[in-house]
């Protein structure tokens, strides 16, 4: 039933159909303190300073005023929370938000949850000092685990028999560092760890009135002591997965709750008691806590499968059958684990004729236990041999790791088997590194010095409803251009790119120290640009092929309904850009903003633009209502004019193609108070964005650049426009995509260098004078100017005069820092030519 006065759901005596997890709002789901500090003072502060200001006594009334306002315009979700909650929801958990905010904040809190966690939160509940407290709320709701950042709430919840997770986001939540955690609580440092931890808790003890038990995580750092091991049948209350749940009540105590089997998101394998579980240890003597109101009924929670290396073949479940193989003929199978006789692939041959499917284990041969030597002996013999085969469930996921770039190699010329690595991924880590896949990395990187940049165990992949990535190497790794901390875990979207660098984190150590007080989300964004400063030795694309044995269907690209074209910008001259760099597609439902078209806005605004924050992460949403007609809604508080109409946040209007979008802001440092247009976009038809034909003009004296070198697939020419050429990915997008080998493109910056004509003196002559040409380096990557065998290196912002025949050499990864030294991917040369 629903308590209308408090908005708190009070459960009836009926059994809960799904396990419930309670989540605090402030600093767990919502970055409240920083948003409040920015709103109050107009300037961002460190996380600790923001927290102190937000929760100080003299700011309490102001904070309540802020929370009751439409703070969702400013507040952002905590990093990683959206992905983690989506995984928990998919796995069958019911998620509830609990908060100590005043009840007057209900509507604004609901708006925040609806905006940032749509369809994920099942209920919002308010606690208070006068009651009910969070512990009482969680007990009433039948919560399995509470996630909170405040120790007083943790202590209260544990006292009511509720398990707790203390969120200490990347160790920055210093306000919960002062007290050791009680038994029944665990400290975790990221939302990825929380999702993995919650999903790893199999078969918790539960009742309709309370949930309390002693629990042990499998993968997270815990502050609980070890659990005594014994066989499942040795005493009542021992869960079948090997975890002990102490109780002071007999097995029949508490309301009878029928067991409910939840949908399983992974293919679980029966876990025998003999399989060791990873448990965190505390010093001996740590007290074990038992709650007197602990019930012994079991609520089925999502199970996690185990890796093949942890499942002895004598304990594997599944049908067993005998298959007869003929000697001296290929069996037609692929044995992925020779020691265990585990088969993950069936090829053409006898296995195909026998109707065998992948994923089985060879238990015995002619009645003798399987061994590799025995199998080889039988295959070379003269009589047929019988193999007892036990079918296995497929792995949680099958993943393809494809090398798309590697220093010193042309991967496009390699056969797929040399650059493709297929892995079976389970809930336990699957390791990748030169010691784990020695043959693969040896063939991919014949250069031993280069191969040593790959650690023995470089990173790991695991499955928790989605693909999880953990960096294990001291060498820097970027996942989709986001810095991955050592031992840090993150979810990888399908098709994610992993940039494996040769150097460690020392060169960004200063940035880490400088950003130590930043929030984790700001910290990660702060490090995004480092991918341009480091040279990856290899880039891998990670693609999920199968989940639970079923192929992953490739998503068909949505049809393009129109295109958004940038027609003017205060920051850069967009007229000199190719049409492909200043347009992006508009589908039937398209969100527009920095989060959705990051590269586009970086190009048309420039990375250092003062207007960057005037474009919101999600600024507009366009929905096609009729062919050529779109409904536009403003999602941002920033100013925007759509088809000449000023849209406030939440307002919408209907437009046709050819409508304009003016983004407005007050110029920084300007005394003006009226916002001015700094960026104009136009909605154009899909077939109306091609480059317009250029009018023929009289030929005049000018200059151009010719592209050549061993790293170039085809020579190209770039002509000067208005006496200037800027070379870079943002300026010649198609050229760099098609004319350069793929592994070379990473060494070309968005704006690499510029050549421009300088004004020259002299009187009138029959022929125009040749103007002086000046080369200016715009990138931090090394650039050289070569003239008559003399080579001069340029750093960023350096400039030098050039003339016809001069060559501009770009760095392509040479270990000695030269244009074409050992380890480079080839020569990349631009030659200056002029009339």
Fold and architecture overview:
This protein is α+β, with helices and mostly antiparallel strands and 835 residues long. The protein folds into 6 domains: 1-29 and 77-306, HAD superfamily/HAD-like (Rossmann fold, 3-Layer(aba) Sandwich), CATH 3.40.50.1000; 32-75, no CATH class; 319-391, Roll (Pdz3 Domain), CATH 2.30.42.10; 397-551, Tumour Suppressor Smad4; 562-688, Tumour Suppressor Smad4 (Sandwich), CATH 2.60.200; 703-834, Tumour Suppressor Smad4 (Sandwich). Helices cover 17% and strands 28% of the residues. It contains 19 helices and 45 strands. The strands form 9 sheets. Strands 15, 16, 20, 21, 23, 24 and 25 form a 7-stranded antiparallel sheet that branches. A 6-stranded parallel sheet has the order 5-4-3-6-7-8, with helices on both faces. Strand 10 and strand 11 form a beta hairpin. Helix 4 (81-90) packs parallel to helix 8 (191-199) and helix 6 packs across helix 7 (151-159). The longest helix is centred in the N-terminal third of the chain and has 11 residues, at 106-116. It is globular, with a radius of gyration of 31 Å. Mean pLDDT is 74; it is low at 1-16, 202-317, 509-533, 689-700 and 762-767.
């Amino acid at each position: 039933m629903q308590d209308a006065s408090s908005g708190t759901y009070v459960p009836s005596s009926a059994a809960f159909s799904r396990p419930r997890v309670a989540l605090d709002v402030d600093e767990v789901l919502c970055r409240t303190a920083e948003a409040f500090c920015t709103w109050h003072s107009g300037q961002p502060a460190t996380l600790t300073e923001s927290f102190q200001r937000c929760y100080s006594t003299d700011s309490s009334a102001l904070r309540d005023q802020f929370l009751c306002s439409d703070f969702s315009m400013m507040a952002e979700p905590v990093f990683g929370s959206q992905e983690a909650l989506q995984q928990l929801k998919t796995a069958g958990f019911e998620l509830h938000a609990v908060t100590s905010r005043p009840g007057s904040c209900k509507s604004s809190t609901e708006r925040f949850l609806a905006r940032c966690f749509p369809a994920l939160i099942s209920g919002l509940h308010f606690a208070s000092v006068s009651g009910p407290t969070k512990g009482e709320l969680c007990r009433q709701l039948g919560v399995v685990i509470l996630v909170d950042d405040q120790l007083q709430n943790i202590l209260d919840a544990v006292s009511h028999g509720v398990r707790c997770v203390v969120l200490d986001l990347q160790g920055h939540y210093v306000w919960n560092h002062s007290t050791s955690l009680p038994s029944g609580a665990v400290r975790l440092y990221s939302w990825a760890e929380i999702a993995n931890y919650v999903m790893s808790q199999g078969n918790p003890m539960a009742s309709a009135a309370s949930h309390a038990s002693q629990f042990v995580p499998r993968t997270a750092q815990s502050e609980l002591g070890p659990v005594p091991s014994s066989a499942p049948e040795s005493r009542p209350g021992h869960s079948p997965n090997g975890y002990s749940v102490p109780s002071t009540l007999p097995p029949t105590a508490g309301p009878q709750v029928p067991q409910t089997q939840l949908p399983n998101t992974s293919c679980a394998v029966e876990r025998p008691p003999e399989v060791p579980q990873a448990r965190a240890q505390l010093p001996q003597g740590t007290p074990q806590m038992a709650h007197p109101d602990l019930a012994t009924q079991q609520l089925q929670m999502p199970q996690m499968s185990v890796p093949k290396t942890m499942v002895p073949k004598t304990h594997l479940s599944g049908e067993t059958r005998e298959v007869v193989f003929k000697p001296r003929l290929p069996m037609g199978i692929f044995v992925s684990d020779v020691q265990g006789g585990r088969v993950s692939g069936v090829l053409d041959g006898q296995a195909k004729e026998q109707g065998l499917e992948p994923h089985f284990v060879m238990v015995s041969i002619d009645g003798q236990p399987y061994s590799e030597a025995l199998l080889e002996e039988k295959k070379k013999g003269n009589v047929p041999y019988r193999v007892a085969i036990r079918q296995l469930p497929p792995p949680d996921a099958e993943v393809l790791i494809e090398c798309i770039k590697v220093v010193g190699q042309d991967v496009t010329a390699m056969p797929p088997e040399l650059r493709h690595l297929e892995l079976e991924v389970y809930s336990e880590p699957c390791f990748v590194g030169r010691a784990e896949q020695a043959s693969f990395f040896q063939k991919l990187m014949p250069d031993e010095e280069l191969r040593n940049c790959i650690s023995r165990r470089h990173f790991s992949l695991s499955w928790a409803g989605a693909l999880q990535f953990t960096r294990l190497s001291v060498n820097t790794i970027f996942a989709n251009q986001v810095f991955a901390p050592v031992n840090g875990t993150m979810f990888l979207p399908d098709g994610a790119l992993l940039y494996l660098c040769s150097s460690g984190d020392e060169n960004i150590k200063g940035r880490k120290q400088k950003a130590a007080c930043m929030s984790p989300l700001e910290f990660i964004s702060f490090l995004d640009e480092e991918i341009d400063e480091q040279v990856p030795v290899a880039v891998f694309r990670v693609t999920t092929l199968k989940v639970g044995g079923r192929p992953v269907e490739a998503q068909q690209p949505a049809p393009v309904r129109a295109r958004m074209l940038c027609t003017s910008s205060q920051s850069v001259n967009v007229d000199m850009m190719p049409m492909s760099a200043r347009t992006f597609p508009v589908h039937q439902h398209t969100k527009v903003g920095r989060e959705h078209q990051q590269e586009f806005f970086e190009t048309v605004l420039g990375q250092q633009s003062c207007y960057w924050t005037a474009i919101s992460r999600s600024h507009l949403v366009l929905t096609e209502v009729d062919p050529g007609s779109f409904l536009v809604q403003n999602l941002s508080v920033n100013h925007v004019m759509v088809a000449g109409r000023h849209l406030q946040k939440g307002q919408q209007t209907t437009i046709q193609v050819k409508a304009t979008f003016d983004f407005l802001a007050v110029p920084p440092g300007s005394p003006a108070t009226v916002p001015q247009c700094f960026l104009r976009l136009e909605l154009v038809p899909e077939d109306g964005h091609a480059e317009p034909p250029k009018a023929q003009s009289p030929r005049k004296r000018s200059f151009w650049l010719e592209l050549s070198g061993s790293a170039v697939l085809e020579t190209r020419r770039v002509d000067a426009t208005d006496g200037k050429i800027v070379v870079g990915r943002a300026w010649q997008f198609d050229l760099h995509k098609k004319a350069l080998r793929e592994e070379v493109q990473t060494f070309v910056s968005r704006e690499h260098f510029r050549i421009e004509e300088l004004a020259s003196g002299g009187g009138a002559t029959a022929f125009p004078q040749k103007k002086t040409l000046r080369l200016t380096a715009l990138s931090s990557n090394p650039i050289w100017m070569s003239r008559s065998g003399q080579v001069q290196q340029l750093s960023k912002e350096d400039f030098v005069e050039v003339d016809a025949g001069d060559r501009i050499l770009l760095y392509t990864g040479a270990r000695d820092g030269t244009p074409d030294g050992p380890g480079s991917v080839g020569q990349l040369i631009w030659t200056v030519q002029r009339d």
